[in-house]
TrEMBL record:
Chain ranges of the tRNA synthetases class I (E and Q) anti-codon binding domain: 6-53
Protein's UniProt name: 50S ribosomal protein L25
Statement: the UniProt record of this protein carries the keyword Ligase: yes
Upper lineage: Bacteria, Pseudomonadati, Thermodesulfobacteriota, Desulfobulbia, Desulfobulbales
One matching Pfam family: tRNA-synt_1c_C2
InterPro entries per the UniProt record, alphabetical: Rbsml_bL25/Gln-tRNA_synth_N (IPR020056), Ribosomal_bL25/Gln-tRNA_synth (IPR011035), tRNA-synt_1c_C2 (IPR049437)
Length: 81
């Protein structure tokens, strides 16, 4: 749906992707990630680009939000070709 606000009968949360929140507990991170600032963006291998969550993150428990996914555009081009 282009504009969830156009349906006044439903709560906007009904339009959210149920897979939009994935928690990966006990993940092992590179030590340098502890030095990131809120402005930094990083690529997690084969996953996408991420930034620190400004509200939920703490030095002892970093929380990352995915901002861009990685797509296999080469495979799509091969299928079209």
């Amino acid at each position: 749906m282009e504009n969830p606000d156009s349906d006044k009968e439903k709560d906007f949360k009904e339009f959210l992707n149920p897979d939009s929140c994935q928690i990966l507990a006990n993940s092992i991170l590179e030590p340098s990630l502890a030095e990131l600032s809120l402005e930094d963006r990083v690529q997690f291998e084969r996953q996408g680009y991420f930034c620190l969550d400004s509200k939920e993150s703490s030095p002892d428990k970093p929380v990352f939000n995915r901002i861009v996914t990685l797509r296999d555009s080469w495979a799509k081009m091969q299928k079209k070709g």
